[in-house]
Amino acid sequence: MQTNVISRSLHDVGLSAWFGGTLANAVALNRAASAAGDARSTGAVSNAGWDAWTPVNAAAIGAHLVGSVGQLVGNSERLASQKGVLAMSVVKTVVTVAALGATGYSRVLGRKVSDHGAVPAASGTEPAATTPPEVAKAQKQLQLLQWVIPALTGTLLVVSSYAGEQQRPTSVLSGVTDRLKLGR
User: Fold this and answer.
1) Fewest C-beta in 10 Å: which of 21, 27, 85, 120?
2) Where are the domains of the chain?
3) Residue 54 neighbours by CB under 8 Å, 6+ apart
4) pLDDT class for 119, splitting at 50, 70, 90?
5) Which residues pair with 121 in a beta bridge?
6) CB-based contacts of 60, cutoff 8 Å, min separation 6
7) pTM metric for this prediction
8) pLDDT tens profile 88-116
9) In degrees, to the nearest 5, what angle opens at C-alpha 75 toward C-alphas 72 and 76?
């Protein structure tokens, strides 16, 4: 029996960190930064937190992508022979690309905010009245993206669970049988 423990582990641990870290930062860091004492410190604390998370997030995403490729290679026969596996893989790929795009754009916006240093802010994603306009604009966009990324990566977790269910022997048997009946 062929196992894909390493690729599955990279896939799952990377995705879990990507999801969990971005959700934790959205829920806690951005709000907690407002307790820094003054508006200028709020921006500095939030920037420091997100800047510290960036390399960890990049490593998590990299691990997830390497694991994803390993899973595709390891399941190539099922992709071709089991009904539903190819469609699930296409959905998973589309959602992954969307999550990567949102994460990349979020980092570009975060870099704009961080490059301005200790600017006044109400929280990590809420500008203060004295926040420079270009930073305020980036923060407003980040306010939405901080929830989009965990929503997309959470969706990937659900699709991955579905993919695991497709690997049950009864699912493989019925999927292959259905594919043969359709002549595909």
Assistant:
1) 27
2) 5-174
3) 107, 110
4) confident
5) 127
6) 13, 14, 15, 16, 17, 18, 21
7) 0.87
8) 999 999 999 999 999 999 999 999 998 98
9) 80
